[in-house]
Amino acid sequence: MSGKTLSEKEKALAGLPYLAYTEELVNDRLKTREMLYEFNNSKPVRRDTVEYREGREKMIRQLFGSAGKDVEIEPPFYCDYGYNIHVGDNFYCNFNCTILDCNKVEIGDRVMFGPNVSLYPATHPIQPEERSKGPESALPIKIGNDVWIGGGAIICPGITIGDGVTVGAGSVVTKNVPSYVVVAGNPAKIIKYLEKKGED
């Protein structure tokens, strides 16, 4: 039975081993670097101005796969492709965020990132012999609504974080996080359960 041959980009999005240095992916990353250079060196202005909407906000919308209302990202910001990142409404991202979006990254509404937050969908083989041959892979990351991720936190490949979660500063999230909890530590563990407000 014959099937379609996947491109390296399609393999990456499917979570399969892929080669990152094909012409298509190299060109995509270069285009993103050029956009990030412009964004990271843009003039700071108030976010409630036309200048902001036509400057930084417009750049974010051109960079990301999709972006909701009232999205603010403090430069510098770094990512691999940009088009695999999807953010909801009222997203705030503090300084020096890195998102290695070799696979899809979905971020819900009313999410806040502290400074130096890193999202790492990208991963490599553990065995050095296999790693040296070049293939890598990536797993999607999904973050729910009303999430606060503290400064310096790291979100590892394939992680889903539920709604209403607080991730403590400096945490390394290696397992999925259920809704309405506080997690902290390396590796991050649940330290508090939260009550969901506004329900009978």
UniProtKB/TrEMBL annotation:
Checking InterPro entries in the record gives: Hexapep, Hexapep_transf_CS, Hexapeptide_acetyltransf, Mac_dom, Trimer_LpxA-like_sf
Is Transferase given among the entry's keywords? yes
Alphabetically, the GO molecular function entries are:
acetyltransferase activity; O-acyltransferase activity
Keywords from the UniProt entry: Transferase
Q: Does the keyword Repeat apply?
A: no
Domain Maltose/galactoside acetyltransferase residue range list: 9-69
Q: Which PROSITE patterns match?
A: HEXAPEP_TRANSFERASES
Alphabetized SUPFAM superfamilies for the sequence: Trimeric LpxA-like enzymes (SSF51161)
Q: Could you say which protein family the record assigns here?
A: Belongs to the transferase hexapeptide repeat family.
For this protein, the record's PANTHER family field holds:
ACETYLTRANSFERASE C18B11.09C-RELATED (PTHR23416:SF23), SIALIC ACID SYNTHASE-RELATED (PTHR23416)
* Name of the molecule in the record: 27366_t:CDS:1
